[in-house]
Amino acid sequence: MRPEPGQVLHFSEDPTITRFVPHVAATAQESEPYVWAVDDGRSPDYWFPRQCPRAMAWAGPETTGDDRDRILGPGCGERVHAVEYGWLEAIRTARLYAYRLPAAPFRPLGEHAHVAVEPVVPLGPPEPVGDLFALHAAAGIQLRVLPVLWPFWDAVVASTLRFSAIRMHNATPR
């Protein structure tokens, strides 16, 4: 599930949204109200139930061969998403929808998101994303299941890989 040219995506478990209005999310580090969306490169970060903690890592130009083999694994592709065993059923049963939004009102915010400061109407009805495991497989993204995310995350942030994490406050405590 990727945006087409001129689009960004918003993923939600709510299929009834007809208009996105800027707001300050409870977990936001930004104080300005935004409508949030992602581009093609960051769409896979959101192929999960909203509250699911996940740690993600991928190879970049600066990634060493040692870090690639140690964290991604030899022959395991360019990207890994890690989740905890306790979230497998939620991932399996989640009903996730992708909203296609016009890219014009959005601007990049950091490396991970696009934001708009005005209300945005979707370009059409939301599209069911489908089987989240199959989506990862089709994209060639390794989905790793761990008892606890923190040791993996600590290794990733100390490496030369690029990385992101979402909802880590919902992970099993250290």
Could you give a quick summary of the protein structure above?
With 174 residues, this protein is α+β, with helices and mostly antiparallel strands.
Describe this structure as you would to a colleague.
The chain has 174 residues and is α+β, with helices and mostly antiparallel strands. The protein has one domain (7-24, 31-170). The protein is 17% helix and 26% strand. The protein has helices spanning 65-72, 88-93, 132-139, 150-157, and strands at residues 7-12, 35-37, 54-58, 79-84, 97-102, 107-109, 113-116, 127-128, 142-146, 162-166. Strand 6 (107-109) and strand 7 form a beta hairpin. The longest helix is centred in the middle third of the chain and has 8 residues, at 65-72.
